[in-house]
Design goal:
The chain is mostly beta strands and about 120 residues long. It has a single domain, classed as Barwin-like endoglucanases (Beta Barrel). The protein has 2 helices and 8 strands. An 8-stranded mixed beta sheet has the order 2-6-3-5-4-7-1-8. It is globular. The mean pLDDT is about 95.
Length: about 120
Amino acid sequence: MLRCILRAKIHMATVTEANLFYEGSITLDKALMEAAGILPYEQVQVSNLSNGERFETYVIPGTRGQVCLNGPTARKGAVGDKLIIFSYTWVEESTLRQAPPNPLIIKVDEENRPCPEGST
């Protein structure tokens, strides 16, 4: 049996812009994507700590520090909101029993730069 398990998350990203008239997605700093192992157009789940909204979309690479809600997701948050961005993977249950998951957690500062290990 396959189980859906958290693979990585970007914790406390700050929304830098919202673009309602884009086709849809979330634009993330390419360096953050790489740090979390998120590929372009990969599906992610996003949780907005500022308003409680939760949604799924896909990621497109952006510029340094960029976290932009595009298309309909622009209605799910505002500039300055704090987000947690989750990436999941499907893993065979037998594998999980042998080696429990150790998700990659990328904490970011106010400018969406990865924090040094152990800081927030």
